Amino acid sequence: MKYASAQYNRAELERGYTDRVLHINLSTYAIAIESIPEEVKQTYVGGRGYCLKLVYDGTTAATSYDSPENVLALSGGPFCGETGFVGTGKFIAGTISPLTNTFCDSNVGGHFFPLVKLSGFDAIAITGKSPRRVMVVIDADASEISIVDAPDADVTINGAEELIEHWRGEGKPTNVAFVTAGMGAQNTWFGCLNSVYYDNRRHRCRSKQAGRGGTGSVLCTKGMWGILVKCNISRGHANHPANHDRIQEAGHKLREVIKTVDPQSMRLNNQGTTSLIDMMNSNELLPVNNFQFGSHERAKNVSGKIFEKEVFKQNIPDGCYPGCTLSCTKGCESYVLKTGPFAGMQVAVDGPEYETAATATNLGIFEIDYMLEYSWYCDQYSLDTISAGVTMSFLFEAFERNLLTEEDTAGLRLLWGDVRVALELLHRIAAGKPGLPKAAGYGVRSLKEWIADRAASRLKRTRESVLAELSLFAMETKGLEFSMYITKESLAQQGGYGFALKGPQHDESWLIAIDQLRKELPTFEDKAEALLWFPLFRTWFNIAGLCKLPWIDVRNPKAKDTPFPAKNLPTVDYYLELVNGTFGTNKTLEDLLLESERSYLLQKLINLRQGYGTREYDSIPLRAMAPVFISEYLSRKDYYDAYLRESAKISPDGTSHEERMVLLQNFRRSQYETLADVVYRKKGYDERGIPTDTTMKRLGFDKPEFMAIIRDGRKRAG
Fold it and tell me: Is residue 693 situated within a structural domain?
């Protein structure tokens, strides 16, 4: 049934923009198209910037994730869909998150938003709540937007080809794409959005995920199945840049760097991001048993080399959007599911990505079959693989430490390495089964409270003491579960996770490689400077509609001759060519960083408005800084003893191992707090982590409404 429809005149793309936002109110089934003011475009650029602006304008301090007025915003940046360059299929999904209670966003690829831009929109804003499950259809071929009944079947990954075949009509299947969220997103707070598109080379649908923060869960609270877009307009250089040749030349140069460098370094073209498994394991960075340990001898069973040889066998270009030759979107074409509601079905599995694979090692599981099964089901259920996996590993450790019993788990013995039990727990969480599975679906921050309530009376301990123990190994900050890197030995990455505005997600500050692997941040000042520069430039990718991997993971050979090789400035020059070739401008890197800083500041203001954003919310669990139980210390005793002597200048002689661990913990805590002081000053914040008046004025945010948020934050912080 069609509940609402509207004919529209499609806005043509010009220099990367249509300057239109599509508003859908599901409470009233109202469809509206508004122009984006020039001032908004110049200030917020697109992507994350537009999502931040839409969420800020549409919500208040009282808005929660399930409030009707909460905005689910989707936006590609000005370079989203540019076929002459590399990594341009990206867009941002942003909203008030159920996990963090403030703005959270995810960067996701595929064909969906490039088709939305071709259809005439730079952004989509969804508000309200539908009493029935519906889908929004953007049919650019018919110049119509409609709200109709959701598909009869709960289509996510399974059934995607049939859905696209139904809607494509006379067009190509590659010209239809959709975003959706399935059963797991309906039953948890860490549901993801699946961005589904048809891959002409593999002759099947593939899916990319907006994973972090529960964007899919918000979609479900609004009574939505998803959004489908159909557009048969040619994609070739459809952004209509000011200088097409300039972009082509820059894109060619970047592809040459990728062709030369990637086969000799990360091998993303062959192994996808599973290439990181070997690298992390050999440097004590691979999470094992809920981030207790950083390596395991069995990791060789799931190395990127094995994925390349035995799983990713097809020699097929795997870019997630035309124009990208990094081709890191790997997949397994034939796998038979062994558990769950689809047991016995032969499926194709996208990925797994490194982050998904590492959730297995974090459970003590080193089996590729488990990684494939877990990855497919998380996509089908629409669960963020990171939050789901870290929540599960937290439960396994709570069971190990007798803070959970089989009575709590309904008979599941949560033992490290048990594949059967881990998958059964996943299926129960996705289904929202009563008891522990339902509680687990609310994430680690909420789950701490649930466990403490039950364990305290059973163990005859105070609730506060149980909660304190759980907090030692509950790997979350700001309500968001940690992404999959051990940070104990990287002060820069500790700051990268703790200071990240949405919580410990690596897309804002992935410094682990340049700090711990390449040793390119040797001094305290180097680390603090990196924590200023990299979040801003990585934010720029999210407002521009671009993938970061061609920049951060493919080091230009010329970078070694620059003062700060990790910034990869020779490749940054190619991005400047893309910017100025599209806009017909002469922007510099400093201009891009300034644009990012404005969006970064608005996100900080939303955090403060929602009651967060001050220094206390930048704290991280002790395990992110140091070992918290003696088994962790003893696993690297010689390293930690040497560290105390050489780095902390503390002699461990005459002390017990327990005493040495406490000395190490205290030193690492003090380092982190000192780092916070320095980084805050560099960012233009006061010691409470709140922007100063000078910073507000410098960035043009010294308006009464923004300054009121700053004053309220200062009052709360004392």
Answer: yes
